[in-house]
């Protein structure tokens, strides 16, 4: 008996047509058109950690429901005329990189527009409070424009519940100094998919701080590119994932101009069954970006059994003329020896755990350095630990 | 420097790619191109293989058709599977002494310096693979007495069928990936090693692989079994001539490291710059066992190679030391994969890469800690050195941790050669080129010192060649 099939002489290999892989992160698709981003099935590179099965409703192309969100701005003097899709600076910094962002863009006819006047220092933090209502879906697009040599701090607070896609588009003028803080203090059933993208001007300083404590599924993609040499970007993040939470942060620094700097520091703690955190940090150093400096750091502290932290730093470098580039990531368990040491000195276990976790977050929190953010954050972390201890 | 030349007569007078000559190619010229069931059956038939192997090969061919090409990593569009010669037989029967080899093959290996190594008894055993099959084989008598088996894989199947069948495909199944399927369908040659319980092979076993035919595919299959508490070090080197069109090297290496055993596998890959080098290498480690991969990638057009260790038993340990050089037109996409499947296992990956002349090096690795592998530790360190403005270096370290009681660290740095170092060396009378080569050698020294002496010397020489013309 022959083992061969009748046409054994010929062999057609349908899969032999190889495709050319993406040469760099810059080749990943970006588009304003929702149709360019089909519903993800979870095997795509940029969705492979995300529980897309929990997001089918949010990833459907639907407009904002009535009363889904209330948005308040603390200082009306910075609120400019809302921007339509091709109006003003809208679309210059942010081009959607995934379906959620494309939906947020397409379903936001008018974007909230905050404008910091040129040559002006804003002493008080500018607060934007976004409150979502349970069971309702919203799409949002915010444009923050910092004029030349302006200085300011914008705090975006997210509270309440519901399902939200959101874009935050930041244009930092030449020599400006802008800090954008995004606080995710959602209720435990909120879904939030966001793209934050900044275009950093010549010699400008941009700081982006993501603090994610609440929400069922939160995914924030924070991207930076430069509009001229000398820009400096710092991306900081703190997250605390409890049982059942999926907190995902992705950063992409596109060093497309010479002598630019970037520093990314994200730290997270996890506690509880199936708490899941994801950090993916991409850095691309283009051939023209000579003399740049970049460092990325992610550390995860796993406090209890059953939690999972994914950490992926990717670095692509197309020129050797750089001042320095590196990244580091680590995931470790709560160190029992430190706990023992403190307990041996008479500190009760609960208090000792609190000290160790505070110590873990200490350096990123000192980098944040914004009292309006830091104090409530430390309280919130203590509250998370206290809640965890009771379980 | 003269001592290096004395020790390595083969290294004299070598050009930019010193192994680029081609011998007359009577065997290759007549070999058929393309892939089909008939070709696979023909390979199996010529070797007079048992039916289970033929079935296995045909199954793998079907899997090969189904599997997609990798959509990540390097550009593989240049491979034309139907233009490749899948089996080229170069000699009628395997020689047991050097003199028995046909003249042209002997000359080839003389140029590579094998008989020197063998004559000096630097190595415990030598296998030389030319085209598809092993042409020369020798193992020291005392090792043979201890029960060490070191034969080519075809003889392994013939002479030790039971042992072979038990382990073949157990580490890398036929459907593992497209190129593993291809290898399983058309494999030929390679090494089959069995080290019995408690036996320590104290000097390295060695193999050389050479492609001589244009559009040739070399698909060697290596199977190493280290029984409990044994140890062995296997070293392979690879070269090919330079032809106008591309060749494919797609090996599969399976290693089984049993309880408490230790295997070290060293590769210095210096294929010519038109070889696609797409290799699947994997080891499984039982409790207390250690697997070490030492991986040097210098040649080839494209290399995609991620030696893996599956840590299956408690306290097993995996280690990869990897260096990659990418010159003009080269893409070294290399790294390592560590899968922690048992408690208290540990792994270390150290990767160093140098890119110059527009070449691209990528570190692509995976550390996976599965549920139940508590107390596991992993550390990944990647350093890249860029010597000019047009070269490229990437780091893609995937980490997948599904257990909480673990320690996991990754660090990467990319730097350029510092002007201070160059100035210091040049002020001591070195030319710019010498200074650059010295800095690069210093950069890879932590890996070079792990190599057997003659390989370390060769590596240094290859670095110098790679760095030639790198300055200015």
From TrEMBL, chain A:
GO terms for biological process: iron-sulfur cluster assembly. It comes from the Bacteria. Residues 1-37 are annotated as: Disordered. SUPFAM superfamilies: Stabilizer of iron transporter SufD. Pfam families: SUFBD_core. InterPro entries: Fe-S_cluster_assembly_SufBD, SUF_FeS_clus_asmbl_SufBD_core, SUF_FeS_clus_asmbl_SufBD_sf, SUF_FeS_clus_asmbl_SufD. Residues 134-360 form the SUF system FeS cluster assembly SufBD core domain. Residues 22-31 have a biased composition (Basic and acidic residues). Belongs to the iron-sulfur cluster assembly SufBD family. This is Fe-S cluster assembly protein SufD. It comes from Flexivirga endophytica. The lineage of its organism: Bacteria, Bacillati, Actinomycetota, Actinomycetes, Micrococcales.
UniProtKB/TrEMBL annotation, chain B:
Residues 144-206 form the SUF system FeS cluster assembly SufBD N-terminal domain. Pfam families: SUFBD_core, SufBD_N. It comes from the Bacteria. GO terms for biological process: iron-sulfur cluster assembly. InterPro entries: Fe-S_cluster_assembly_SufBD, SUF_FeS_clus_asmbl_SufB, SUF_FeS_clus_asmbl_SufBD_core, SUF_FeS_clus_asmbl_SufBD_sf, SufBD_N. Belongs to the iron-sulfur cluster assembly SufBD family. PANTHER family: FES CLUSTER ASSEMBLY PROTEIN SUF (PTHR30508), UPF0051 PROTEIN ABCI8, CHLOROPLASTIC-RELATED (PTHR30508:SF1). This is Fe-S cluster assembly protein SufB. It comes from Flexivirga endophytica.
